[in-house]
Amino acid sequence: MMAKKFAFLGYDLAICARRLDRLEALKTELEKEFGIKVYVRTLDVTAYDDVFAVFEEFAKDVENDGGTLDKIIVNAGVGDSRVIGHGRFAINRATAETNFISALAQCESAMQIFRRQNSGHLVVISSMSAVRGLPRHLTTYAAAKAGLAALAEGIRADTITEKLPITVSTIYPGYVRTDLNIGAKYLPFEVEEDEGADVIVKAIEAKVDEAYVPAWPWLPIGLGMKYLPLRLITKFL
Asked: What are the record keywords, sorted (predicted)?
């Protein structure tokens, strides 16, 4: 959905995902509807060497057409995790690797490209779950997303100390209905994918350092999550 929002704004796009058939269909749709250029490549983000190869191939594609990679959005992730101590380490490890280590590979590759270009905008999609340690099935997911947010802040600190013309944005979405949670019950304040994508893209375009989206009600909820006693937080989850 974010791809369509950016296409509407006139951006050429480089999109990677695991399924080539869906990528090709999306490429055809976006190029026909919006008259933009779309580059696509398959990528499993847990194949770390492939992350670097695909990102560099995209950079070369764009460079050959006379441009640069303006933004790289680190958005791949999984929502599956289990209660700690119940023998489900393999599931929790897979979640941690996809949501943090894979994101680390993407950030590393993106920053190599941006440093070479001396420009760029790195966007990491974290989660409201990152604001506080959470119980039960959310524990590993929240920890990985918190790690991603801290990683982005550290990269942002580098750009400040080195005076690099590179923006780093961390987006904390609330509950958004996506392919990850189709079939699950609706949660309080959950928004549909189109609305969620709209507020995320607006925050990215504003080049914010950090944003809770949608701001209402997630900004005040985020403040409460940070400072309320943990025993109260657990009652709402």
From this structure: Oxidoreductase
- Determine the pLDDT at residue 128: 92
224 to 3, 122, 138, 176, 227: CA distances (angstroms): 32, 28, 18, 20, 5
Neighbours of 22 (CB within 10 A): 13
Nearest residue to 197 (alpha-carbon basis) of 209, 179, 183, 184 = 179
pTM of the shown model: 0.92
In-domain check, residue 62: no
Say how many domains are in the chain: 1
Q: What is the mean pLDDT of residues 178-187?
A: 60
The listed range with the strongest mean pLDDT (131-135, 175-179, 197-201) is: 197-201
Catalytic, 48? Answer no
Q: What residues make up the domain containing 151?
A: 70-182+202-235
Structure tokens at 225: 């999550």
**Is the CB of residue 179 less than 8 Å from the CB of residue 17?**
no
- Residue 86: both structure tokens together: 């119940």
- The verdict on residue 37 lying in a domain is no
> Is residue 154 one of the residues assigned to a domain?
yes
Alpha-carbon span 39 to 23, nearest angstrom: 9
Contacts for 30-37 with beta carbons within 8 Å, 24 or more apart? 30/3, 30/4, 33/7, 34/7, 34/8, 34/10, 36/7, 36/10, 36/11, 36/12, 37/12, 37/13, 37/65
Which of the residues 39, 141, 172, 212 is marked catalytic? Answer: 141
**CATH code at 86?**
3.40.50.720
